[in-house]
Amino acid sequence: MTMTKRSIITIILFLGIILFFGLPFTSWWFFGADDYGGVLIGYKARTWHDLLNFFYDGHINNSFGNGPTNSAWLNERPPFFGTYYRPLYCVFLTLQYWLFGSYAYPYFLCNVVFHAFNTAVLFLIFSQLTNLFPAMLAALLFAAHPQIAYRFGAIVNFHYYVNTALVLLAFLAFKKYLDTEQERYYAGACTLFMISLFTRESSIVLPSIAMLGVYVYTNDYALLTIKNFFSQWCTALQKTVGLWLISLSFLALRLFLYPLGAPTALQQNSLLSFLIKKIPEFKVFIFDLFNLSWLPWGHPLMRGTILCTCLTIFALFFWNNNRKLYVLISFAAGFLMLWPALMGPYSPRYFYEAHPFFLAGFIMCCSFYTGTLIRFKKIFLTLLTCLVIFEIGFVMHSFARRSTKHGLLAQATYELTTNPAIKNRALCFIGHPTDGFADQNAAIFWILLNDLSIPIFFDSATAITQADANIVQPTKWANIVSNYHDKNYYTTIPVPGGFRFTSLNPAKIHFFTENCNYSFGEKIVHEKQIVDGQRVVTDFTLLINKEYLKQNPLFVRWDFETKSFIIEKSMISKE
Fold first, then answer.
1. Rounded to two decimals, what is the model's pTM?
2. Which of 100, 171, 222, 273 makes the best surface tag, with the fewest CB within 10 Å?
3. How far apart are the C-alpha atoms of 412 and 304, rounded to whole Å?
4. pLDDT digits over 321-358, tens only?
């Protein structure tokens, strides 16, 4: 009877996620330069031979193309540590483009389906650690994590969801091997792990996690002693040797394709300096860990009180726990999956792959709790149920706002590409919103115009960032997905040789004229102001290089009031 209930709940979770998170939001569009570049991968791959070539040239940044026409792009083969070798990721994007073209909603729906699948699989795993209802709540905490509301907009994140599915299935197959000693399950686990590595390299730590699992799963907890430590770890290594061989083979292939190259100078930073720089990122991670990312900014007392309460309850549950090692190993596995955040800045996207391991740790922290707080079990489950219901509604609310914004982007972009005035003309974009277009969106126009030879220019300094509401805006009750401004809050005035940009409200819009990824001219700063304690540019002139003017481009600007592209008048001559 329990298996029947488990099966029913699994199906309900899978279909429910698709129903609530996928079907209502058909007005979806691609999100930023990464998405546009991902679609360009499929556009440029025309044959089955191109799919095979990804296994030789699977560095996704190369496949994305070289950015706008005015970008300074190095065509050198990237080094071992500077490449994102993900050939299957490129294959998945190509197959999606062959099926869906530039219609964004099916891409989004594929993401939702894999997310629903991961949620269902996690419920099956969690139901082996605790009762069905708590297992379902834990799976829904994964499904409706607040970062899903913020980060699910980009269809190019597809490989995170696919890779998590592959890792979970590999663990299930490996556990089946440990239970039955049947080699077919071991082969299945190794195959899934190999596919995972070629999708996204973050799973390279899976053999280490599997060893931790073997260590505690194949031994009686009471026998995990220092005396038997060496023999137990030798057994764990023996059980996982196939995974280690695949991992080493993958690294060898990567080294063959992308040599180490000349070593770069190491930064002379102490461990203390490194940890200090990581403190702001660690704060974000802690809020992600306890599903509190939705809490509004600017309320330190409220945020601190809620977080301290969560940490205190967790500490009490851990302290009065007769299986502390299980909890620690689950959290260790989660931190191992977050290794990309140690190699660079922490991104909430990375948390998706690590979240299942942290949730398993929380479940075991509660399942093996022996303290007096157990009498409040029903209260905890009630509060957790309320949190899950709130977060499901929060995700749907955020998806609705994002879908509305995406619909505007899609309509405006299609209208521009069908405008006869831009036919066979070089395009020069100014004043485009970073929320949705990033600092350039050349790829999507090449695709929709079906011509990679059209010169398309961008300058990052002219990209408009909504300073008070870029992507996310704080409200009294939560950080929600922002809408576009209803006013431009800046002026663009044509001047000889370029354009002058002036902010009408520096608190809402100011400019970033330094460290631009893409540039097609000289910036002359006229005025800076203090906004939120920082000195920002509020008035500057862009003088466009003559080499670009010789191509007689049309200047295209985003208009916040009409939510459309307009062709800007100019005083520029190509002479």
1. 0.93
2. 222
3. 42
4. 888 889 999 999 999 999 998 888 898 899 999 999 99
